[in-house]
Amino acid sequence: MNIRLMIQTDIEKINNAFAAQGWERREIVLQNYFLEQTNGERFVFIAEETNEVLGYVTLLPQAKEGPFRAAELPEIADFNVFEKYQRQGVGHQLLAAAEEKAKIFSSVVTLGVGLHPGYGAAQRLYIKSGYLPDGSGIWFENQNLAMGTPCRNNDDLVLYLSKELY
Question: Span 2-164: which CATH code?
């Protein structure tokens, strides 16, 4: 397996992998990621083997939302390992690549993880990798939720975590 930065031809490969597992194609999002990488605003790490994309993760040099935005800490965002490659170490290697790059910007890296069951594997990976909740509680649609505030358990309901990089 090889971990490298995204190239433009990866966009179609990633979209095909999403479609193969019944997910929506994300061509515009991926094109924006590639443009942001070109401009130094985001890094997109690709795991590939025999010219096939196994997954990807992005790293923002500075968090754009959530509790770490004001602290200007790097944030890992949009992390996907395609289902047929999960539980094979792909996620660990992608996470390690993003963390190594984050060291350029800070001694701490951050991320937000969804709370519905679809994020279960990611939740376990982050905890096993040393990430800890930041203590700000749960966030919904980029707002910190006060106790008793109604919300929806979707991709916008997240818990923020951080890890010290050594």
Answer: 3.40.630.30
